[in-house]
Every structure is written in C-alpha cells, then in structure tokens.
Amino acid sequence: MEDRPVYSALILAGALPFLACALLPAAGVESFGRLGSLHELAATYGLAILCFLTGIHWATQLYHGSPLPINLFIGSNVVFLAVLLAYVASSLKWALATQLIAYPLLLLLDYQLLQKGLISQHYLGMRFIATAVACFSILFILTSG
C-alpha cells in the first residue's frame, strides 16, 4: 500500500454512491428507471462492496503466507454470507441493517491487521472514513423511510 493517492481516491470514491443513494431522495430523485429505487441500489451496491472487501481480506491472507492470528478466509466470509443471506431472504430494511453491522465488523478486522503490522495507519484511516460515510448513509436511508 505504497501508492496512497491512488488507494485513497478509490476508497473515497467507493463511498460516494452510498451518499448519493441517501441524499438524492431529498432532492426528489427516488429511482434510476430500470435500475430500481435508490434504496435498492444502495443495498445492491453495499453487497458488492462487501464482496470486494472480503476479497481484499482473502488477498491479505494469501499474500501473508504464514498463519495469521485471525483467519480472514473465515472471518470476513461469515460477515459477507450473513449479509448475502439477509439480502436474498429478507426485506430491504434487513439487508441494509445487516450491512450497517457488517461494515464496522470488517473495519475491526482491518484494525486487527493494523495491530499485526499488515496494513498502514493511513490505510485504516481511509477505511474508517469510507466506513463512516457508508454507515451514516445507510442509517439515513433506514430512518428516512
């Protein structure tokens, strides 16, 4: 993670669709035609981002080689599978609520990676900002109806 401007921009850009899905309904935009409502798009996008974050954890586990104190294959996958199950088998509100729990859990895994020296403080800081934006956006969506 030596190229801070690139990953910083990507992390922050990844949080913007959550913000858009939360705030555009206040401007009268409720959906994007055939793509569906903004709240549905937020849930789908959130699932995709969780899948991506799980992939980052898998890559960290594979790249490190030696056993880590946390098995990222299992830890991040349990979080992702819970969100996937909520997305497929329950309501939109439950799908978003599980994401609201999942993002901080994955951030806690990243904090543990920082403690083991596997990621930088800067990377964790950027992840914290993106997680905060995503969680506040999801919370706004859930409380706005």
Question: Briefly, what is this?
Answer:
By secondary structure, the protein is an all-alpha fold.
Care to describe what's here?
By secondary structure, this protein is an all-alpha fold. It is built from five helices and no strands. α2 (38-64) runs antiparallel to α3 and α4 (92-115) runs antiparallel to α5 (121-144).
Task: Using the alpha-carbon principal axes, give the shape.
Answer: globular
Give the SSE order as H and E letters: HHHHH
Number of helical elements = 5
Portion of residues in helices?
over 70%
The value of Rg in angstroms is 16 Å
Low-confidence stretches: none
Fraction of residues in β-strands: under 5%
In angstroms, what separates the terminal alpha carbons?
39 Å
Averaged pLDDT, please?
89
Kindly state the number of beta strands.
0
Largest sheet properties: none
Tally of separate domains: 1
User: Which structural class best describes the helix and strand composition?
Assistant: mainly alpha
Strand-helix topology:
Blueprint lengths: L3 H20 L14 H27 L7 H18 L2 H24 L5 H24 L1
Helix pairs in contact: 1-2, 1-5, 2-3, 2-4, 3-4, 4-5
Features:
0% strand, mainly alpha, 78% helix, 5 helices, 145 residues
